[in-house]
Design a protein that fits this description.
The complex is a heterodimer.
Chain A (H helix, E strand, L loop, with lengths): L7 H21 L5 H21 L7 E5 L1 H4 L9 E7 L5 H16 L4 E7 L11 H7 L3 E5 L1 H11 L2 H21 L18 H14 L11 H22 L8 H10 L7 H29 L2 E4 L2 E4 L2 E4 L2 H6 L4 H11 L5 H10 L12 H10 L6 H10 L2 H5 L1 H4 L15 H17 L6 H8 L4 H10 L10 H16 L3 H12 L3 H8 L5 H11 L2 H16 L8 H20 L11 H8 L7 H8 L6 H4 L2 H11 L7 E8 L2 E9 L4 H11 L3 E9 L4 E9 L4 H4 L3 H13 L5 H9 L13 E5 L7 E8 L4 H11 L3 E10 L2 E9 L7 H15 L4
Helix pairs in contact in A: 1-2, 7-8, 8-11, 9-10, 9-11, 10-11, 13-15, 13-16, 16-19, 19-21, 19-26, 21-23, 21-26, 22-23, 24-27, 25-27, 26-27, 29-31, 32-34, 32-35, 32-36, 36-37
Chain B lengths: L1 E7 L4 H10 L6 E7 L6 E5 L2 E5 L2 E10 L4 H12 L7 E7 L3 E2 L6 E2 L1
Antiparallel strand pairs in B: 1-5, 1-6, 2-5, 3-4, 7-8
Helix pairs in contact in B: 1-2
Classes of the chains: A alpha+beta, B alpha+beta.
């Protein structure tokens, strides 16, 4: 049922007929160009506004919006009228009544309406599967209805992310369209809308400019006047084609060429001459369009972040005035440059340099996300050194880190150093970057170490600050730590990360001293060095820092000879840390324990802390920050047989699961099995036992399938299943059945598995070293085999290096090391499991 | 005049230098070298995998001394570089026919 008045249809029809008649007359006179089409669009606007009022649109929040060509006020005679009907609220029966009342009269009089109906909320998410619609929306224009609704739409739609997506899609659409025409504009019968150099290309060039740099075309190969002449010409031709064909026909075929040449009044006695003149004009205009589009495609900055564009010469600020006001966005420019494998443009650097003095260090990282952004910038990868050098050259690096500014151009005279302290520092970062990215067979062993770092940006931060104490002549390492503390305070790094950076700076010379000047064949020297570094992670960081630091002294300083000495110390210390640490237990009255007791929160009695910590391996105190240890003590309180106490917490994208229970067979393997059954990827782990039979297992894993992130009750579900499995109420193998055939079977085949047993390294345990391709369920499979052989898992170290999993198990059987026969049986079973033959 | 070439553990270089300084021997050439003697390296294990460390890093110290102090120099080197373990190194003594100072061109006796 139509809500319009009887007779309204005929009024509209006659209004439309009159408008079309006017346009036809213009076209026939050769004047169907921009002005005529604008006039026609205005007539249609008026007609739609009338319809909107008649349909009762004013009574509800709805906007009638012109899209595409109609939005640009270039409505050709037989073009579709593209509309967006936008509702502010949920579409219900009254809205549907409005739609019918508005659209039916148009259909009745034979107008082809390309309409889209949307609720405003639908624009919260990008319609990524419909790039043509998004492109048409760029030309959106309010014809009738609620202006605030239209403004909201513009606000939601015009975001850097949407613009970037549209631009990318547009470039793909252009490629595909050109391919249909064999990518040449010189067509004998060109399509004046779609062909290369025709109307769509013209709009595309303007769109690219609008999305990236509004004045782009002004710098292009064609002056704006010629570009507009081309537009008017193409529109006049297209109008004639519509008029002659009586429909939306855009191909300038041979017969229509003659007709068009006549309408446009080309001189010449024979039709052929007139056509040749027309076509020569056509190709001239098409070439103007084509060259402008090429220029736009080549030079337009691609939006890559807030106020950031990627252009041919690098990353630049799209709006330099805005950039000058927002220093927190500057680091983003360098980040974007690294991501895009390019540099920051001179223009952007000058902008930074010019406004730098107005800001203090804090102004560059005012929000947590800015501080996270700065740390992310420091992740070692190709381009980091070059971008940090640019930051240093324009003064930004020294402004963000005034500590670093103090060593700019600082000269320290000795026999070794060849560069100023600031350049030496930046070169250390370049060396690390090269180590991690370049393929150098001689460096593979160190490269593997670097690939396993959990937070390589902390290493870069330590490198950046390791020599800042050299601003004065005395011993520099303690002074560097003092200055670094101020920088770390500003960055508000978590305590653990701060301690790691301080440690690296304080001891940055220690590894070379021990490697080159001490007798590393002496186990006592290695033991002392192992005690200094404490954990494998710190050992790895210090090892790479040492290497990068020596290499930055001069091109000749890091010889293969020195590399070998560093590597040997690294291996000996690593082996000491991973194989002998179970022999050194925490004793009552030792310093670390006393500190722990002194700093304990009020709710933890001294006896609880002592009972839990005493008898655990020494390393426990180094592996975990104090807050985590107190959490573990709380978990262990009042635990009874058959009870399992758990905590599960995320830090960034990594989850930490702590499990405390009294020793149970298959405990470790059961936990691994449960985590695998939820698709969790176990990255690191520690299993520790104290002499009272108390077991603490700590796992760090990533939730690659986003189970925990996407399901609100997932956290509780995981804990519940763990409780059930560990206490024996549920069998983990049934949980895993679904995954057995899938993920569990797929162990990365490129890594040949290694199983090695050592009965000598530790005084108390048999050490089992396993290296295998990482896969979900791997640990479960390994630990199940160990448990099936009646062995107790007393200590475990789990780590991953890319696709390689490195696990060290400290095991016993009935409280003793394994016999020769037991070792052999276990090794061959494990080997079969890892090779997938069992 | 003799050339004394000694191969020592890297961490012993400073001690050897100090011992030679006591004999007023200060001119020397120190080179990073790799090699093995009877010790023939050993196998190390990293992450379950054995790898052979056959060429061990050593330091080579070369000095040229008058015949009169050759014995003392050798004694000083051996004492300073000794740990008593395999891999302590070697000392070789060569005759030196002539020696010239490049700056002046003068022949040294």
């Amino acid at each position: 049922m139509s809500m319009t008045q009887p007779g309204a249809g005929s009024t509209i029809r006659s209004a439309l007929d009159a408008a079309r008649q006017e346009l036809r007359a213009g076209i026939a006179a050769g004047a169907g160009g921009r002005a005529a089409l604008e006039q026609h669009a205005a007539h249609v606007d008026a007609l739609l506004q009338q319809l909107y009022r008649d349909a009762g649109g004013a009574e509800r929040p709805v906007a009638v919006i012109a899209l595409g060509g109609y939005g640009r006020r270039q409505l050709c005679l037989h073009s579709d009228i593209d509309l967006l009907l936008l509702f502010g609220a949920r579409i219900g029966p009254p809205e549907e009544r409005f739609l019918r009342a508005f659209l039916h009269p148009l259909w009745d009089i034979g107008v082809v309406v390309g309409h889209q109906v949307r609720e405003l909320d639908e624009f919260v998410e990008l319609e990524a599967d419909n790039p043509e619609f998004l492109l048409a929306l760029l030309d959106a224009r309010l014809v009738a209805g609620a202006a605030p609704l239209f403004d909201r739409l513009r606000e939601m739609f015009h975001t850097p992310a949407t613009h970037a997506y549209i631009l990318k899609s547009l470039l793909q659409l252009i490629e595909a369209r050109h391919a249909r025409f064999n990518a040449t504009l010189y067509q004998l019968e060109p399509d004046v809308k779609e062909a290369p150099g025709a109307l769509r290309d013209l709009v595309a060039a303007r769109t690219i400019a609008a999305l990236t740099d509004p004045v782009l075309l002004r710098r292009g190969p064609a002056d704006p006047g010629r570009f507009e002449d081309a537009e008017d010409f193409l529109l006049r031709v297209r109008s004639i084609l519509h008029l002659e064909a009586g429909r939306n026909h855009n191909v300038l075929s041979h017969p229509l060429q003659e007709r068009t040449a006549d309408v446009l009044g080309y001189p010449g006695s024979a039709p052929r001459q007139r056509v040749e003149r027309l076509m020569s004009d056509y190709f001239r205009h098409a070439r103007t369009v084509s060259r402008s589009l090429e220029w736009a495609r080549r030079t337009a900055p691609v939006p890559v972040g807030p106020n950031l564009g990627l252009s041919r010469d690098g990353i630049r600020f799209l709006d330099p005035v805005l950039a000058a006001r927002t220093p927190a966005s500057w680091v983003g420019a360098f980040q974007a440059a690294i991501d895009a494998g390019t540099e920051v443009t001179d223009e952007a650097l000058s902008c930074i340099q010019q406004h730098l003095d107005r800001y203090r260090a804090e102004d560059f990282t005012p929000e947590p996300r800015d501080r996270v952004g700065l740390l992310r910038l420091l992740r070692p990868r190709a381009g980091l050194y070059a971008r940090l050098s640019q930051m240093h050259d324009c003064g930004l690096l020294g402004r963000i880190f005034p500590e670093f500014d103090a060593i700019a151009w600082r000269v320290v005279r000795d026999f070794y150093h060849k560069y100023t302290v600031d350049e030496h520092t930046l070169l250390t970062i370049r060396n690390l970057e090269r180590l991690m990215t370049a393929h150098e067979p001689s460096r593979e062993r160190f490269q593997a170490v670097s690939a396993s770092l959990a937070s390589p940006e902390l290493l870069v931060l330590a490198l950046l600050l390791h020599d800042v104490g050299k601003w004065r002549d005395e011993e520099h390492a303690p002074e560097s730590v003092r200055l670094a503390d101020e920088a770390l305070e500003r960055l508000q790094l978590p305590r653990e990360a701060r301690e790691t950076v301080r440690f690296l700076i304080r001891h940055h010379l220690q590894m070379s001293i021990v490697a080159f000047r001490r007798d590393t064949d002496d186990p006592q020297i290695v033991k002392e060095f192992a005690q200094l570094v404490g954990t494998e992670e710190r050992l790895k960081l210090l090892c790479l820092l040492t290497l990068a630091d020596i290499e930055a002294v001069s091109p000749e300083t890091l010889t293969p000879w020195k590399e070998e000495l560093i590597w040997r110390l690294y291996v000996d210390t690593y082996n000491h840390l991973t194989q002998r640490y179970g022999d050194e237990l925490i004793e009552r009255n030792q310093a670390g324990l006393m500190e722990l007791l002194a700093g304990r929160p009020n709710d933890l009695p001294e006896a609880d802390v002592t009972r839990f910590v005493e008898g655990l391996p020494q390393r426990y105190l180094q592996l975990f920050p104090r807050e985590a240890i107190y959490r573990h003590v709380r978990l262990a309180r009042d635990i009874r047989p058959d009870e399992v106490h758990l905590s599960l917490e995320p830090v960034d994208s990594i989850w930490t699961l702590a499990v405390v229970t009294l020793d149970k067979p298959f405990l470790f393997s059961n936990i691994c099995g449960v985590l695998s059954s939820f698709g969790m990827n176990i990255l690191r782990g520690q299993a520790l036992t104290n002499p009272n039979g108390l077991v603490l297992d700590v796992f760090q894993f990533s939730d690659d399938e986003r189970f925990l992130a996407l399901n609100p009750d997932a956290h509780a579900q995981v804990l519940h299943v763990l409780q059930d499995v560990v206490s024996g109420r549920v069998d983990v193998t049934t949980l895993l059945r679904g995954r057995e055939r899938g993920v569990l079977g797929r162990i990365a085949a490129r890594v040949a598995p290694i199983v090695r047993i050592d009965n000598e390294a530790s005084g108390r345990y048999t050490i089992l070293d396993i290296v295998a391709g990482n896969a979900i369920g791997l640990l479960y499979r390994i630990s199940r085999v160990i448990s099936q052989h009646g062995c107790d898992v007393d200590l475990v170290l789990i780590s991953t290096e890319g696709e390689r999993a490195i696990d060290v198990f400290h095991i016993t059987r009935a409280g003793a090391k394994l016999t020769e026969a037991e070792q052999q049986a276990l090794t061959s079973d494990l080997q079969r499991t890892l090779e997938g033959t069992q | 005049m003799k050339l004394i070439k000694s191969i020592v553990r890297p961490n012993k270089v400073d001690e050897v230098k100090d011992a030679l300084a006591k004999l007023n021997i200060s001119g020397m050439t120190v080179t990073e070298v790799r090699g093995h003697g009877k010790q023939k390296g050993h196998t190390a294990i990293y992450r379950g995998k054995e790898y052979n460390v056959s060429l061990l890093p050593k330091m080579e110290i070369e000095i040229v001394v008058a015949d009169s102090i050759v014995e003392d120099a050798i004694k000083a080197i051996v004492q300073a570089a000794r740990t008593g373990e395999i891999g302590d190194g070697r000392v070789f003594v060569f005759p030196v026919l002539e020696s010239y100072r490049i700056r002046t061109g003068e022949k040294e006796s």
